[in-house]
Each structure stands twice: as C-alpha cells, then as structure tokens.
Design a protein that fits this description.
Order of helices and strands: HHHHHHEHEH
Radius of gyration: 15 Å
CATH topology: Lysozyme
Number of strands: 2
Number of helices: 8
Strand content: under 5%
Largest sheet: 2 strands, antiparallel
Distance between the termini: 15 Å
CATH class: Mainly Alpha
C-alpha cells in the first residue's frame, strides 16, 4: 500500500474497507493514499488545516461547505481520529467512486469533481479566485491550471509512497 508504513493497521484496514465498498483495485487505493498524502502534507492527520486559509481540514482537506453537506463541521472533523475521518472520506467519494478510472480522476474528485473523466489537458482554472487559490499548481506559469498540472504533485507523492521505505504489504483482516 502506498505510504502504508506511515499509517497504523486500523487506518490500513479502513482504506481496504473503502476499496471493498467501491470495488476499487489496489491501484485505485494507492491513488487514494497518494491523494491523502498530498492533501495532508504526508501527515495523514485529521487535524491538518490548509495553510492558505481556506478553512479546509483533514485527510482530503474538506472545505467547510463540503463538511456541512456531509452533516459535520471541519471543527468536528479535526477532532476525529484519522480512522473515524475515513468514514467521511468514504461518504465524500461515494458519488464519484464509479467514475474514477485514473489517478487524475481520483484527485479531481477532491479538487474539481467536474473534471473527472476529462483529459489531462483540460483547463481547470484560468485567472480568478480559484486560480489564485491554486496557483502553486500552475507548473508552467501560463495563467492556467490543467488537470495534468494539478495532478503532477499527487503523481510524485504516489511514486514516493511506493518506495520501499514508505510502502507496506497489507492484507485484509
């Protein structure tokens, strides 16, 4: 499991439970772990808050409105254990689970769900507030963020997370 050595066995089993619920492959679970690693700055902490001040919190950086839509607040999410917060990760991904085919799609479920299924050259943001909040993802500084650019940092996390010192063999219990 990608970054499996950075989480405890209960968290690993929670990830495998999500895999079973959605019928995802091991590759898709590794993609999810890479997304969580990126969004949580490799802490896998339910308490981590977005440094840019958006109010996003937790494993997949739940935005305040997103948390409310899931029947919770970011303050409550931050007080949960990582394993308990995985239940909200599951609830969040449920509407998108069958559409996710690639790492880019997995990350788009978090960042820009309307881009799930689109090509990696699809433009997500060009100028405006959303662009400014995500400008660090604009790799070529052309004023536009494509799906591929946005995913490149997550792709790097996946490569890192699969290295021997981070990956772990995990079996369903």
């Amino acid at each position: 499991m990608c970054f499996g050595s950075k989480v405890d066995s209960d968290f690993q089993q929670g990830i495998l439970w999500i895999r079973g619920q959605f019928g995802w492959s091991d590759d898709q679970i590794n993609d999810l772990m890479a997304c969580i690693a990126f969004e949580s700055a490799e802490t896998f902490s339910p308490k981590i808050v977005n440094a840019a001040g958006s109010g996003a919190t937790g494993l997949i950086q739940f935005m305040p409105q997103t948390a409310e839509n899931l029947g919770v607040t970011t303050a409550i999410l931050a007080k949960m254990s990582a394993v308990r917060q995985l239940g909200y990760v599951y609830k969040y991904f449920k509407p998108y689970a069958k559409k996710i085919r690639t790492l880019s799609d997995m990350y788009m479920a978090i960042l820009a769900p309307s881009a799930i299924g689109k090509d990696d050259d699809a433009i997500l943001y060009a100028n405006g507030a959303a662009y400014r909040q995500n400008s660090a993802l604009d790799e070529n500084s052309d004023g536009m963020i494509t799906k591929g650019e946005a995913t490149s940092h997550v792709r790097a996390k996946r490569v890192k997370g699969m290295r021997e010192e981070y990956a772990a063999e995990v079996e369903d219990t």
